[in-house]
Amino acid sequence: MSLIIRGLSKQFQGSDEHTLQNINLEIASGEFVCVVGTSGCGKSTLLNLIAGLENPTEGEILLDGEKITKPGAERTVMFQDHGLFPWLNVIENVKFGMKINGVAKELQEEKALHYLKLVNLYDYRDYPIHQLSGGMRQRTALARALTMDSKILLMDEPFASLDKQTSNRLREELQRIWLETQRTIFFITHSVEEAVYLADRVVVLSPETHSIRDIISINLERPRHIYSPEFIELRHRILDEVRGEAI
Amino acid sequence: MKYEGRLYKLSLLIFILILIVFWQGFYFLAVDVLQLSKPYTVPSPLGVGERFLDLLSNGTLPEATLQSLGRGILGYAIAIVIGAVIGLLIHHFYYLQKNLKPMLLGLQTLPSVCWVPFSILWFGLSTNAILFVVVMGTAFSISISVDNAIKNVPPIYVKAGLTMGATKSQLYWDVILPACLPELVSGLKQGWSFAWRALMAGEVMTTSIGLGQTLITGRDLADINQVMLVMLVIVLVGLLIDKCIFSAIEHRMLKKRGLLSE
Predict the structure, then answer these.
(1) Do B162 and A128 make contact, defined as CB atoms within 8 angstroms?
(2) Which residues does chain A have within 8 Å of residue B159's beta carbon, measured at their own beta carbons?
C-alpha cells in the first residue's frame, strides 16, 4: 500500500481563501500518521479529500497508483461522532460494512466477534447503541472500521468528544490494536499529546498558509510514556510549531 | 396528578361513562321534562344504542364499515405510491424542490372536500370519484413528508455508508430508508388521518355504500340517532387504526432506538 498526495489544494466555492494549499505527503504501508493543527487549518478537509468525500481544486491523491475520485471501502473513515446506525445493535453495526460488500454470512459473524473481542465489547454485542457510553460507541465504530480491511484507515478526531480518561484509555487500546493488526492509519487530532503518543510521524499544518509546516518523526519506543523526558520534549517542540512560534 | 397504564385506562372509561350519563340526563331534562326540543332533533345514548343494535343485526353497519375501510385503504395505498414517487422526485431534482414543493404546500390548505365537484365531473357518482378525492387529499401531504424525512437524515449516516463502500441503491435501502423511518411513519400516520377525512367527504357527496352514505341516510330519514351513531363509528374507526397500527409501530421503533423517554 502506498498513498501519495501531490500538489493538493482545496478552495471551497465562494471562498477567497484556500482551505489547503500545495500539500505533498507520502504514507507508507503500516504507518501511523497523525495530523495536528489548530482549528481552521484544514486538517479535516485533508481527511475528507483522502476519503473522497470532497474533490480537490488542484493536485491529486493516489492510492496504489490509482487516483481517488470518490469514497470507497478501501479508505474507511472513523468519525468523531461515531456514525453508528441507531436502528442496528452493536454487532449488526459492526457487520454492516461487510454486509454491503457481500462478505459471506459466516465470515461476517467470525470477523465481527473477533474485532468485538479486540475492542473489549464482546459481552455487549447485542446491546442497542443508545445504551452504550460514548467510549463504547467509539469502540464499536473502531471495530466496524477494522472489519473493512481498508488499505488505509482514516480517523477524524475519534476521541475528541470523549472525556479525558476515556480518550486516554482508548488511545492506549488503539496503539495495542495497531501493533497487533499492522494497519495503516491516518489520524487527525488537535491534541499534540495524542499525536506524539500514537504516531510514527506527526504532520503539522499551518493555519496561516494552510500547508504543511513540518513533519516530525517520533522515534520513541512503544508503549510510550507521556511523562518521559523525551516525550515531553517532543510534545513541547510540536506544540510550539502548532502555535507557530518555532523556526 | 400523573397516571399511566391501567389506571389511566380505568379513569378514561369512567370519564366516558360520566359523559354518557350527563348526556342521557340532559336529554331527559331538555326533551322529556321541559320539552324544549323535539325528540327527533336531539340524539340520546339510549337512542343511539338502539340504532346500533338495529343496524348491527340487519348488517348495515358492518357492511358500511367494511366498504368504507376497504375503499379508504385502497385510496390510501394509491396515495402512498403516488406520494412517494413525487416525494422522491422533489428530493432528487432541485428544480422541482424549488418550484413544485411550494405549490404542493399551498395545496395543503385546500380542504379535500373541494375536490368533490371536480371528481364527480370526471368520474360521476362512482367509487372512483371517492378514490380520487382520497388520493388528492392525501398524496401531496405524503410526498412532502417523504421529502422532509429524507432531508432530515443526519449527513454522517450517508458519509458512513459511502466510506464503507455503499452503492447508490444500498445507500437508499440500507441507510437512508431505515434512518428516516420514524419520520416517515409519522408522515404516513398524518396521511391516514387525511385519507380518512377525505374518504368521508367523498362518501357523503356520492352514492356508494359506506359510512358516509349511512350518515346521509340518517339525515334523509330525519333519524338523529343514526346520524350520531355513524359519526361515532367514523371517529372510532379512524382512531382505532391510528392507535393500533401507526402509534404502535411508531412506539416500537422509537423505543428500539432509544428515542423514547419511559
Answers:
(1) no
(2) 51, 53, 71, 77, 79, 83
For residue B143, being part of any structural domain is answered with: yes
The C-alpha cell that represents B255 in the structure block: 423505543
**Domain total for chain B?**
2
Q: Is A97 on the interface with B (CB under 8 A)?
A: yes
Strand partners of residue A78: A155
pLDDT per position as a tens digit, B172-227: 999 999 999 999 999 999 999 999 999 999 999 887 889 999 999 999 998 999 99
The reply to whether B172 and B244 lie within a common domain is yes
> Is 0.95 exceeded by the ipTM?
no
In angstroms, rounded to a whole number, what is the distance separating the alpha carbons of residues A241 and A237?
Answer: 6
Closest chain B residue to A53, measured at CA: B159
Contacts of B163 in chain A (CB under 8 A): 51-53, 71-73, 75-77, 154
Q: What is the amino acid identity at position A125?
A: R
Cα-based angle B79, B85, B89 (whole degrees, multiple of 5): 140
Structural domain that includes position B19:
1-41
pTM attached to this predicted model: 0.85
